[in-house]
Amino acid sequence: MLIRKRRLGIALVAVGIASAGLAFAVYQDIRGPLPLTLGDGGNGPQGMVWLPAGEFMMGSDHKQARPNEGPAHKVRLDGYWIDRYDVTNADFARFIAETHYVTTAERKPKWEDLKVQLPPGTSEPEDSVMVPGALVFVGTDRPVPLNDFSQWWAFVPGADWRHPLGPGSSIEGKETHPVVQVSLEDAQAYATWAHKRLLTEAEWEYAARGGLEQATYAWGNDFTPNGEKMANTWNEVQPFPVTGSSNRFKIGTKPVGSYRPNAYGLYDMSGNVWQWVADWYRADAFKVGLKLNSIGEVLFNPVGPSESYDPELGVTANAPQRVIRGGSFLCSDSYCTSFRASARQGADPMNSMSHLGFRLAMSNDHWEKNR
Questions:
Q1: Do the beta carbons of residue 250 and residue 235 sit within 8 Å?
Q2: Could you read off the pLDDT of 155-186 as tens digits, one per residue?
Q3: What is the pTM of this model?
Q4: Is residue 145 classed exposed, middle or buried when 0-12, 13-18 and 19+ CB atoms within 10 A define those classes?
Q5: How do residues 114-155 score in pLDDT, each as one tens digit?
Q6: What are the protein's GO molecular function terms (predicted)?
Q7: What is the phi/psi pair of residue 91, to 5°?
Q8: E strand or H helix at 322, and its extent?
Q9: 6, 7, 299, 336: which has the fewest Cβ within 10 Å?
Q10: Are 330 and 180 contacting, i.e. CB atoms less than 8 angstroms apart?
């Protein structure tokens, strides 16, 4: 059991999951808090929150939004269950213990997978260089131009979900922290074991917004309402990405549920760790989706584009990316700002990183058939 660090400001409602209200889609224009329907393993999957079918405005046309976040458009979704928290180290450890699964970061990388991430013509490295490992945020000791992330990220041999910062680091005592250093493949393997699935990008944003129509953040428009910090983001004590010896170990994940939930009772939809979602990444996905839509301006259960392409980076289908959402403890006003509800980004599905995790979803039909 995870320790609930804060009491919800909304009431727990005991609802029969097989009732008609959940079995059939009744679309609502949901704005504001919902009564919390939390699965307990009998009435709904353990630790998951029910979000009823509804409509919302996805994306943003705000001046702070990036081009890949627009245009804002109406989306209609069927109801679904969503994890209340990100998947934790303890959760992932149970999966590993039962399946003996070996994560991407724990395997020797294949040149076929690696070369599509590198400039054309890059020579194959010596076999001694091709070792298991993952990307770790290492920071800098002084301010640097923010146009080259290789200055603050490094491939660290031996870094994996058990050793997020490399050999010598550990998750001991961090059982309730979100698991990191997991690739998309790892997240999908866990989902199969748990009889769940990754969220679509639309499902993720619907959940993150918590019924606040076009609000900037998952909790409203004020980043620190009444001076209260609402998410685990860059601490701003020093400019990003400066860590320095005295501040280095203060930067990282925190236990899930360390901050207030949003109005849907969901924790850490902003900050702490990025979250994998199912959609292929395209910078122009929303524009393309609206053009292909045949039922007017409302997109029904969108699942994203059929392939990945990022015209901003020139990344073609031979180097596909998947969408990640939510931002992380590294997001800063001066650099990332991806803790905003509409912010989106692509990531190589083979990548494992020290600020990237996931949470999962489940349809009610799947729950009813497999309970």
A1: yes
A2: 899 999 999 999 999 999 999 999 999 999 99
A3: 0.85
A4: exposed
A5: 666 665 667 677 776 789 999 999 888 888 888 788 888 888
A6: formylglycine-generating oxidase activity
A7: -60, -50
A8: strand 322-325
A9: 7
A10: no
